[in-house]
Design a protein that fits this description.
Number of helices: 8
InterPro entries: Cyt_B5-like_heme/steroid-bd, Cyt_B5-like_heme/steroid_sf, MAPR/NEUFC/NENF-like
Keywords: Membrane, Transmembrane, Transmembrane helix
Strand order of the largest sheet: 1-4-3-2
Helix content: 40-55%
Bound molecules: protoporphyrin IX containing FE, 2-acetamido-2-deoxy-beta-D-glucopyranose
GO molecular function, one term: heme binding
Protein name: Cytochrome b5 heme-binding domain-containing protein
Family: Belongs to the cytochrome b5 family. MAPR subfamily.
Number of strands: 4
CATH class of the largest domain: Alpha Beta
Length: about 190
């Protein structure tokens, strides 16, 4: 079976990869995660992050909803979570768990509660797509759907209502999937 290349749906789709990824809502991050396992120059990595950020402007809303409902594009909730702990963890302790040492756990804090995301090195490990959130409280960036390092900070007081919703949805996403190992203390 053949059709005219210039008018086929295939051409339309492949000429606008970011749009497709946004519409499908899956493939772009999957490709991103997979490709970060091969060696990239810093410039290539920067380009990838920029592409993700641009696409996320459109995808953020859908992803927030997906996070809230636990929709099928996201990993399933955990069934074996431990009771939450409230051990004090300083910001500088937390910074050691940023994925740079593969022998250590990886932690991410949201609104001061520290989640153990060690099970997902392909997302949060060094050089991976979501490493920007590792070893810190990055509440503001999660609320903004931002992968920019300057947004990966604890103070989320600047978020507006919809960004607060997004942050709350991520919080609930993490609560369902990762053990809480402590709370950030000054
Ligand atoms: C084109 C834009 C994006 C797409 C298509 C996308 C897609 C996805 C997909 C499919 C997953 C699920 C992966 C899995 O469960 O294994 C995921 C996870 C996630 N995404 Fe994105 N993403 C995008 C951008 C962003 C941005 C800008 C942020 C910043 C807040 C973000 C934050 C996250 C987080 C925190 C997870 C949870 C990872 C986990 O712990 O399982 N994503 N994303
Ligand atoms: C919140 O801020 C974002 C980013 O500036 C904007 O797109 C969105 O419309 C704002 N939402 C509300 C409810 O103000």
């Amino acid at each position: 079976m053949s059709s005219s290349p210039s008018s086929s749906w295939y051409d339309t789709l492949t000429s606008t990869p970011v749009l497709i990824a946004t519409a499908v809502g899956v493939s772009f991050a999957a490709i991103f995660a997979a490709s970060s396992s091969s060696s990239k120059t810093p410039q290539q990595v920067k380009e990838q992050v920029k592409e993700i950020k641009n696409a996320a402007v459109n995808a953020g809303d859908a992803k927030g909803k997906a996070a809230q409902t636990g929709a099928s594009i996201m990993s399933a909730p955990a069934t074996d979570l431990a009771p939450p702990k409230d051990d004090p963890i300083s910001a500088s302790d937390l910074a050691q768990y940023d994925g740079s040492d593969p022998s250590k756990p990886i932690y991410i804090a949201i609104k001061g509660r520290v989640f153990d995301v060690t099970a997902k090195p392909e997302m949060y490990g060094q050089g991976r797509g979501y490493n920007v959130f590792a070893g810190k409280d990055a509440s503001k960036g999660l609320g903004m759907s931002s992968l920019d390092i300057k947004d990966a900070v604890p103070d989320y007081s600047s978020l507006n209502e919809s960004q607060m919703n997004t942050l709350n949805q991520w919080e609930s996403f993490f609560e369902k999937r990762y053990n809480i190992v402590g709370k950030v203390v000054p």
